[in-house]
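Board work, copied verbatim: Putative receptor-type adenylate cyclase
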Amino acid sequence: MRHGLVLFAPFTGSSLVRGWNPKFYFLRADPAAELPALLRYALAHLRGRRLGFMYMEGEYFGGIEYELVERAMSGMGYELSDVFSVESSVTGGAKKEAFDAAWEAFADTQLQAVIVFGSPTNDAVKLVRRMLAGKRTAVAYLLASSVLQYLVLRVWRAAVAGGVEFVPGQVITTGTNSLAKDTQCEAIRRFQELMREYLEKSGQKCYTDKDSFFYS
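↓ predict structure ↓
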């Protein structure tokens, strides 16, 4: 601010650091903006009326989103079926007995879908692993924000490798960028055009297929 610099932030994991500043620009959506997308998908597309929410207390991420989802659900005449929340290991962590008791109560509610918000910590790994491997929770859809995308997919792959049944579409995450194959977006069409030209004419030898960049 003192020297008149303009700052750009590629992404943020928490909505707490967001705020209006004429010298500070965020290039991606507010993490809290991902919540309505997940909520809408769970209720309108998956039609899951037994919806749960998971977050860790004491982190910069999750508590605000929990309050927002409660408010949104109440406005539609719904309420969350259950919430899993214990103290984060970042602030000391819950005792194993308390964690296990909270999890047992949460799993017993037989949820159809669960939204998880939080930081990509060991707590999140533990929650996602239990969610996907537990007999009572493995049938539920798991919805996560983009900041947890890599963690969730990594844990899911490990769970499947360990014998958990692979269910296509069971894990859903938000994203803040258009896919490279989404031709509804003019910017992506332009990107495809320029990338194909580069792959064909630049002399690069890594990719023989000019369309390989948008396979998923």
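The helical segments are 31-45, 63-75, 96-107, 122-133, 149-161, 186-201.
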